[in-house]
Amino acid sequence: MERGKMAELESLETAAEHERILREIESTDTACIGPTLRSVYDGEEHGRFMEKLEARIRNHDREIEKMCNFHYQGFVDSITELLKVRGEAQKLKNQVTDTNRKLQNEGKEVTMEELKQCRLQQRNISATVDKLTLCLPVLEMYSKLREQMKSKRHYPALKTLEHLEHTYLPQVSHYRFCKIMVDNIPKLREEIKEVSMSDLKDFLESIRKHSDKIGETAMKQAQQQRNLDNIVSQHPRISGGKKFKKEACASSDLEVKNTSPMSEQDSGILDVEDEDEDEEVTVPGAQDLVDFSPVYRCLHIYSVLGARETFEYYYRKQRRKQARLVLQPPSNMHETLDGYRKYFNQIVGFFVVEDHILHTTQGLVNRAYIDELWEMALSKTIAALRTHSSYCSDPSLVLDLKNLIVLFADTLQGYGFPVNQLFDMLLEIQDQYSETLLKKWSGVFRNILDSDNYSPIPVTNEEVYKKIVGQFPFQDAELEKQPFPKKFPFSEFVPKVYNQIKEFIYACLKFSEDLHLSSTEVDDMIRKSTNLLLTRTLSNCLQNVIKRKNVGLTELVQIIINTTHLEKSCKFLEEFITNITNVLPETVHTTKLYGTTTFKDARHAAEEEIYTNLNQKIDQFLQLADYDWMAMEPSSKASDYLVDLIGFLRSTFAVFTHLPGKVAQTACMSACKHLSTSLMQLLLEAEVRQLTLGALQQFNLDVEECEQFARSGPVPGFQGDTLQLAFIDLRQLLDLFIQWDWSTYLADYGQPTCKYLRVNPTTALVLLEKMKDTSRKNNVFAQFRKNERDKQKLIDTVAKQLRSLINSHHS
């Protein structure tokens, strides 16, 4: 049993092995079938294998037969086609045979050497084609390089040169033309450097010419920003969603850190247009006016060539030279505002370009270089402005210059440059502006004072009255009650001067705008300038009017009245300044206005001038005095000149009704004292060597006329006989001589109750000597009359006693 099972297993294994060999024979290539058959013959069951092989062949034959039967018609057609092909093939064979025969016949004439030569040529042509295939890309690259350089595409040309040098030329380096190219490569690099440098120089020249336009554009943008800020500050609700174009430009500048070279079509213009601003009229960006691509290309070319430091040094050096040229102001810059504007535009344009270069290149310029240039520019600009602004005498031009400097500072501050020194300098210009204002207002005040009629302002109706009250703060209940027509106490120059002071304050306020000053600083500046206007300019103008030779008493009286009202208006000027600066006058360190002092000084000067003028008028009348000092008898009335003088004084003091009482009283007392003193001098002057008692009595009549004037009270306010005391010296002296009361005088001299207390013995002696000489010369025979002899002796005795009094007084 076991043997039977083992035999069966072996039979199965053999059958499986034969099946595997048959499949291998069917699937294996004929060239590799040997090892397979060998494994059959090496075994012991090749007989059985042959049986299986025969059986497999029969199976395949049956399958072939089936397939042939299925494709029989196609097979027949194929055989038919094959027979046709055989016929055509026979024709082709005949043609080939014929051609071969002809070729053999023709070839008999060709020698073997010629054939070899042709084959050599064929190989040479083939080798030449191969070599040209290698050389043509080199030549094409070189041609491309030349074309790029011709079209000024220098950076692509440099890239082409690198490819040519490192990729193509090494493959054909053994050719002579390649060696020439290799030798030319340094020259080509230098040529590219020179051409790109030439483009850079053109660029530098271009931005030098366009700096003015670039700066103008940048300052327009800054002006737009300021206007927009003002609108936003006035209407905060509409500020959402609107931003200034320059902010967008600045943000884009921060994003544009492009260090790759510009393409040939790229002009370097920054796209800063805002689609949301289509409705607004936009100013082109400052960088839109210049093509920056040459500097970018040159920078990258020099970087690739390893000469970046040389390029940076050259660029900075040239820009420094340009900066010095830009910062040199024209000699006539101070003549017009356009001169200053062009100067500022060039400076702004220069630094806008540098700022753009700083933000769009890496390291060509750095912040330290920009700061160094700005420090130099700031110092030179400030020095130039100080020099040229000092020539300006027109306050309007100074104010426009200030606004231009503020715009200049705001523009550059928007690009990150510190401008505090410019605002500090504006405070210096403010002092100059104040001086030019003072000069201008000096002329204004002079015109007002010169054109004034120095008469109270008449008003005929309510409209005119309200107009004047609206111009000048004046309130008078009594004047309001009076019917029309009526008069204001002051003349026209009062409201005019008051309004011009307010205009001056407004002019000062205009300069303080946009200077970033606090309200206290503005208030202090206005008050100081106004004080200068009052204490120096207006005061000088008033003093000049008062001191004029042709000024009359009426004008002086009106000036006193006017300055009194202007003095009262000073508190309203204080309130006016407080309202426009919002700084209360009680604030610590607030400057007070000195207008009160100014008008008081002017009034006092006018008062003194009135006193002087009155005295001069009195002197003019006294020059008309024509006394007959030898007259024996007086006339029945006072001298004509004195009557006229008294009449003048009466009419003059009648005009003083509007003056403060003290001023009128002082003027009257001063005039009487001066008249008394002048009459005394007239009596005692050396030219009058002799006088008679009759002349003295005539003189007494004149003095009595003066005393009558004093008693009449030409100016109210004097108590009792106060005004008459001005003539007390003359009165006592004349009474002493006319009454010949020497005994009383000599007896009571020196006592407080003396009747002739005001008579000086020296004065009495001088007058006595003149009467003594008269007695001697005019009365030749008087010595023969006892009465005359006694009188002469009495005069001598009195004179002797007077001398004794004088000597004792001196001792």
Automatic annotation (TrEMBL):
<feature type="domain" description="Exocyst complex subunit EXOC6/Sec15 C-terminal">
    <location>
        <begin position="421"/>
        <end position="770"/>
    </location>
</feature>
<dbReference type="InterPro" id="IPR048359">
    <property type="entry name" value="EXOC6_Sec15_N"/>
</dbReference>
<dbReference type="GO" id="GO:0006886">
    <property type="term" value="P:intracellular protein transport"/>
</dbReference>
<keyword id="KW-0813">Transport</keyword>
<comment type="function">
    <text>Component of the exocyst complex involved in the docking of exocytic vesicles with fusion sites on the plasma membrane.</text>
</comment>
<dbReference type="GO" id="GO:0000145">
    <property type="term" value="C:exocyst"/>
</dbReference>
<comment type="similarity">
    <text>Belongs to the SEC15 family.</text>
</comment>
<protein>
    <recommendedName>
        <fullName>Exocyst complex component</fullName>
    </recommendedName>
</protein>
<feature type="domain" description="Exocyst complex component EXOC6/Sec15 N-terminal">
    <location>
        <begin position="52"/>
        <end position="219"/>
    </location>
</feature>
<dbReference type="InterPro" id="IPR046361">
    <property type="entry name" value="EXOC6/Sec15_C"/>
</dbReference>
<dbReference type="InterPro" id="IPR007225">
    <property type="entry name" value="EXOC6/Sec15"/>
</dbReference>
<dbReference type="Pfam" id="PF20651">
    <property type="entry name" value="EXOC6_Sec15_N"/>
</dbReference>
<dbReference type="InterPro" id="IPR042045">
    <property type="entry name" value="EXOC6/Sec15_C_dom1"/>
</dbReference>
<keyword id="KW-0268">Exocytosis</keyword>
<dbReference type="GO" id="GO:0006893">
    <property type="term" value="P:Golgi to plasma membrane transport"/>
</dbReference>
<dbReference type="GO" id="GO:0005886">
    <property type="term" value="C:plasma membrane"/>
</dbReference>
<dbReference type="GO" id="GO:0090522">
    <property type="term" value="P:vesicle tethering involved in exocytosis"/>
</dbReference>
<feature type="coiled-coil region">
    <location>
        <begin position="50"/>
        <end position="109"/>
    </location>
</feature>
<dbReference type="Pfam" id="PF04091">
    <property type="entry name" value="Sec15_C"/>
</dbReference>
<dbReference type="InterPro" id="IPR042044">
    <property type="entry name" value="EXOC6PINT-1/Sec15/Tip20_C_dom2"/>
</dbReference>
<keyword id="KW-0175">Coiled coil</keyword>
